[in-house]
Amino acid sequence: MIINEVYAKTILSKSKVADYTINPYIGCEHGCTYCYARFMKRLTGHREPWSTFVDVKINAATLLNREIKKKQPGRVWVSGVCDPYQPIEKKCRITRMCLEILSKQDWPVTIQTKSPLVLRDLDLLMKFTEIEAGLTITTADENIRKIFEPNSPAISERIETLEKLHSSGLKTYAMIAPLLPGAEELAALLSDKVDYVLIDRMNYHYANWVYTKYGLEYAIADKFFREKKEELARAFERKDMPYQLLF
After folding, report:
1. What does the domain layout of the chain look like in residue ranges?
2. Average pLDDT per 10 consecutive residues for the chain, totaling 247 residues
3. How far apart are CA 4 and CA 19, in angstroms?
4. pTM above threshold 0.90
5. How far apart are CA 158 and CA 162, in angstroms?
6. Most CB atoms within 10 A, among 42, 58, 209, 235?
7. What is the Cα–Cα distance from 142 to 156, expressed in whole angstroms?
8. Which fold has domain 135-247?
């Protein structure tokens, strides 16, 4: 893994998902084959393959301290094009430093990650007036997870993380996106661990070669997504769990 220290020009960016987004890093160590964020290479000039480098924005906290005083308060998504709790965060703590600033200003925050490392910051998250923490879980099948998300935490670790966050009183959610084979078993695993669930299909082409390599072409067809959408909807309704279909 190539780790670079970089100086960002800005850190609190406008977002279509929330009012703002903060991305403490460029690139990600999880190596998810479907990752939409690889478009960032067109903006950064990286020639290395995606998931082989991470740029650490070492001035992120300094920038946020400055920018947060100039902008209208709003919800901040942490984060949009990287996992804020990928392994490098354990050492660099850029995400934690940014959350400390957001906490002091009491801005609302939505965290999205695949990593149990978010539990390290539970003490800090509990200080927010309005915060939600979500984990992306695309399948309940560990073999499928290894195919599409080779370097990411195991499904069981993510489920356990949600349980710990939820039992601590935090608002939690699961993001089932992209919807992969085996996702139909997630309703049972997520029961009593999340406040709501978001579900979306594969809306990008980066992982098409993976489906072909492993004979999973059926799982990228419209018929698959239509059937799984209905199956998941019924499963979450039986569990009386709020959910939102994004396709």
Report:
1. 1-129, 135-247
2. 95 95 96 87 81 95 97 96 97 98 97 98 98 98 97 98 98 98 97 98 92 97 96 97 97
3. 28
4. yes
5. 6
6. 235
7. 9
8. pyruvate-formate lyase- activating enzyme (3.80.30)
